[in-house]
């Protein structure tokens, strides 16, 4: 072999050796980088599979987890489950026990998650989740008829919070107002449910007593409906608590002053000192319904925007949340420890209310106005 040939072979061999060394070095660098990357961002460990039933049971082991996910204390959760099973048709099956079904419903109402997120959380099929949510909603509607109702339908006593206004607001048995609950609808249904802000919603009417308890909830009316139209429709239902003789609800300026419904002054009447003074006290008392809506929406986040469901079911979720609100309040009242502090007592209806029971509502409004302003000046 010639010297030049040997030289070429040596060069080729040297190039190959150099390339091999580069590859080895590159591989080592990649391996080192991968090791560092794993240390900095390790792969998440495989979590053990947890079914929906197991997840609910885990939450029922700790009081705080139960409250965080189901928005009520453990004893209240178990008590509600017992009531729904015993009296309102909630059933346990081989596929779903009642605790998991109730837990699923409460978690959905508490978080406002759509069906697919509920499906993932509870490791169930979409069909199973949809069916069970409907079953629990039906049980909750039956339950609502027992808790969304006046404590005393005869209203023989005046609430103690009205004492400082006595006797002028002794006929008040609660506050009535509406609120818009955002809801997702199919495209074809959207125009019907558009409210004045351009959003799709239900215009929900509610009556609240002075303890912030819902005594009536009318759900299902389109957001495009006027408040008076919603009231007229609700008055036709079997469960609407019509004010008895001499009693009335406080309503806002969107409602008409009429028998049983005391509205504030509007227009020039509001500008007078007497009218302004009346409206100030009227708004102070009526704010109880606004506070109730605030508490309701803060606890049950589904009311901030109900995901896409069947329309009838969406309306039922709203009533169910109001029933849960009343139930939780009732449970809290039973747990209140006895104290030496004397609670102000309710009192009997004054003769002033009885004497004006048949008086036209405009005259009643004027009499209350004059009485309040006279006391204010004296």
UniProtKB/TrEMBL annotation:
A single Gene Ontology CC term: nucleus
Presence of keyword Hydrolase: yes
TM regions (residue ranges): 20-40
Domain spans labelled DUF8040: 50-141
Keyword Signal: no
Pfam families per UniProt: DDE_Tnp_4, DUF8040
Annotated ranges, domain DDE Tnp4: 176-326
Keywords, in A-Z order: Hydrolase, Membrane, Metal-binding, Nuclease, Nucleus, Transmembrane, Transmembrane helix
Compartments where located: Nucleus
InterPro entries, per database record: DUF8040, HARBI1-like, HARBI1_dom
Cofactor section: a divalent metal cation
MF term (GO), any: hydrolase activity
Family: Belongs to the HARBI1 family.
Name the UniProt record assigns to this protein: DDE Tnp4 domain-containing protein
């Amino acid at each position: 072999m010639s010297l030049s040939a040997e030289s070429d072979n040596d060069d080729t061999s040297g190039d190959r050796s150099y390339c091999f060394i580069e590859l080895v070095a590159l591989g080592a660098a990649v391996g080192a980088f991968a090791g560092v990357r794993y240390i900095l961002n390790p792969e998440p460990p495989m979590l053990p599979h947890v079914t929906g039933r197991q997840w609910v049971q885990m939450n029922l082991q700790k009081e705080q987890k139960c409250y965080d996910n189901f928005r009520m204390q453990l004893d209240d959760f178990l008590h509600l489950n017992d009531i729904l099973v015993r009296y309102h048709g909630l059933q346990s099956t081989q596929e779903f026990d009642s605790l998991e079904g109730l837990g699923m419903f409460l978690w959905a109402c508490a978080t406002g998650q759509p069906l697919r997120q509920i499906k993932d959380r509870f490791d169930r099929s979409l069909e199973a989740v949809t069916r069970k949510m409907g079953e629990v909603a039906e049980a909750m509607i039956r339950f609502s008829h027992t808790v969304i109702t006046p404590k005393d339908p005869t209203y023989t006593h005046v609430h103690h919070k009205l004492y400082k206004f006595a006797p002028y607001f002794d006929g008040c048995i609660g506050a009535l107002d509406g609120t818009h609950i955002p809801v997702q609808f199919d495209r074809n249904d959207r125009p019907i449910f558009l409210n004045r802000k351009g959003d799709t919603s239900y215009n929900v009417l509610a009556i609240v007593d002075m303890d912030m308890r819902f005594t009536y909830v009318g759900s299902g009316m389109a957001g495009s409906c006027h408040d008076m139209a919603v009231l007229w429709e609700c008055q036709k239902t079997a469960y609407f608590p019509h004010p008895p003789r001499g009693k009335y609800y406080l309503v806002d300026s969107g409602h008409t002053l009429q028998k049983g419904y005391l509205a504030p002054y509007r227009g020039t009447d509001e500008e007078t000192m007497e009218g302004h003074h009346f409206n100030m006290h009227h708004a102070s008392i009526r704010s109880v319904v606004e506070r109730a809506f605030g508490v309701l929406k803060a606890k049950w986040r589904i009311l901030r925007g109900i995901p896409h469901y069947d329309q009838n079911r969406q309306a039922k979720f709203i009533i169910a949340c109001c029933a849960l609100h009343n139930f939780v309040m009732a449970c809290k009242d039973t747990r209140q420890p006895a104290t030496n502090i004397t609670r102000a007592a309710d009192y009997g209806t004054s003769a002033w209310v009885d004497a004006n029971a048949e008086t036209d509502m405009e005259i009643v409004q004027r009499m209350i106005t004059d009485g309040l302003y006279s006391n204010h000046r004296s």
